[in-house]
Amino acid sequence: MFKTVLFPIDQSRESRQAADTVAELVKFHHSRLVIVSVVETPEPGEEVPSAEMASPEAIAELLKTARNLFSDQGINTELIEREGKPAFTICDVADELDADLIIMGCRGLGLTEEGAADSVTNRVINLAPCPVLIVP
Predict the structure, then answer these.
(1) 8 A C-beta contact, residue 5 and residue 101
(2) One digit per residue, pLDDT tens: the chain, 136 residues?
(3) Structural domains in the chain (count)
(4) CATH code for the domain of 60
(5) In which domain, by residue range, is 15 found?
(6) Closest Cα partner for 33 from 59, 10, 4?
(7) Nearest CA among 98, 135, 105 for reference residue 120
(8) pTM for this structure?
(9) CB 36 within 8 A of CB 64
C-alpha cells in the first residue's frame, strides 16, 4: 500500500521517537524508505534558524545517524539533504518521489492559533501531495 515512505527528520526528540513508527510501517509494507533533512535558509530579516539545522555538516551527520539506526533494523534507506524552507522542501521532495506517505514527528509547538499556522507540521499537512501521518 505504501510503496515509498518519506521521513523528514531534524534534531528534535519527537523526530527520533517517530523513527520507531516509521520502522514498523516500512517493515510491514516492505516500503522504500527515503529520509530527508532540510538545511534551513532564512529570508532576509528573518531570525536565523538553530545552528543544528543551519549547518550542512550537522545535517549530513544527522542523516548518517538515521541511516545507521534503520540499517541496524535491516531497513535500507535513501538519504536526501536539501536547502530551503522545511515544509515547502519536504512537500517538494514528496512530490518528486511520488511518495505514498509522509511520516513525521510533531513537536507540539503551535498550540495557539498563531503558532499552529506557522508550524512545519501544519504546513506539510496542508501542502503535501500525499497522506501525512503525524506521530505525537
Answers:
(1) yes
(2) 899 999 999 988 889 899 999 999 999 999 999 999 998 876 666 665 555 566 788 899 999 999 999 999 999 999 999 999 999 999 999 999 999 999 999 875 444 455 555 688 999 999 999 999 999 8
(3) 1
(4) 3.40.50.620
(5) 4-135
(6) 4
(7) 105
(8) 0.87
(9) no
